[in-house]
# Entry
Amino acid sequence: MRSLRHHHAGPSLSQEDLSRSAASALDAADPLLSFAQEFHHPCDSAGRKVLYFGGHSLGLQPKAAAGMLEQELGDWRRLGVLGHHDAVRPWIPYHELAAPGLAELVGGLASEVVAMNSLTVNLHLMMVSFFRPDAARNKVLIESSAFPSDRYAVVSQLEFHGLDAARHLIEMKPRAGERTLRTEDVIERIEQEGSRLALVLLPSVQYLTGQSLDVEPLITAGRRAGANVGLDLAHAIGNTEQRLHDWNCDFAVWCSYKYLNAGPGAVGGCFVHERHGRDRKRPRFAGWWGHNQAERFLYDPTFDPIEGAQGWQISNPPILSTAPLLASLDIFRRAGMPALREKSIALTGFMQRLIEHRLPGLVEIITPGAAQHRGCQLSLRILRPADEAKRCQRELTARGLIGDWREPDVLRLAPIPLYNSFADVFDATDILAVALRA
# Structure
């Protein structure tokens, strides 16, 4: 990718550098700009394209997704049950088509990833295998602002094992007066808990603040303490570069409807490090699709798990919710995650500088300022009373800017490098300024 860095080399930019003409110049130099044409963009009631900065909640639809779905629907119409073997993309091994693309995005081997279920279902399946408490080692460490579904899953697993969240759940909080976690604080707590710690479960990117955690030393600390370490990649996959295999992460789970643009309710995914994938004796909840492929239809009553992440499958793949994922993964393959990350740093940095320049005293950016500590998300605390802040959010939607609101006063905006431009960022900031001053 031709570098964009010379366009945003330093923080001391002039007002001219933050103009719309500067945004247009950045777009003209962007070799990824054409990828925006491969997505459907929402429009208002008058047919005008809205500014979409909600990809951290639901990604836009790839135009190729409809063709992928129609192919499967057509094969279903044409072949019925024979589509399992005779479809253009046969359905029995359908999930395997996603493995190379997912492996590339998480930094793993194709055998270490599998497209299956949804994030929370996969989290439960992983905890069955990787949260094995005993009398001495029975605590779970998470962060205090974990996505509620993750916390529900962890607490329910604790209760399933007869443990009490008040005693066995460790929730890491930022320091007083701070909004994000410090790596050294998490490592210190892991070391303090030591042999009492069974599982460390953290997000790679925190959903509310947009903080990208420095997970490699956290994984190392957790495993050094004797705990298993898992990651929630819901806001990281397709957003920031991951190297799960090299980091020695035990497992990870994710959804595909955010940055992966696979559609509402799309199939999720899971990573299991190869050292566990070869461990046939590791406890797990078993199902027929995780059984030895050569004997799957012989109905052997003794479960024989497939080696690798596929051995954690319960059921056959949901074809119609996997097809759009394949369309999106093809776009990621052609764009390349390193190039997308480079543009993301430039795009989010441009939005940060515009907000700081145009909206002083109106918003507080609670996402870390350093590029290595965030993905393509800025979380803004609206510095207004709660009712006025909520009114501002409604005003943004009415003016054609779609973001994501978190009570009581946080607006999350995600400039996505696949389909947002520098001009989009400028116009979005313009709408935000008008709404805040209205």
User: Anything to note?
Assistant: Confidence is low (pLDDT under 50) at residues 1-14. The chain has two domains: 5-53+336-437, 69-333.
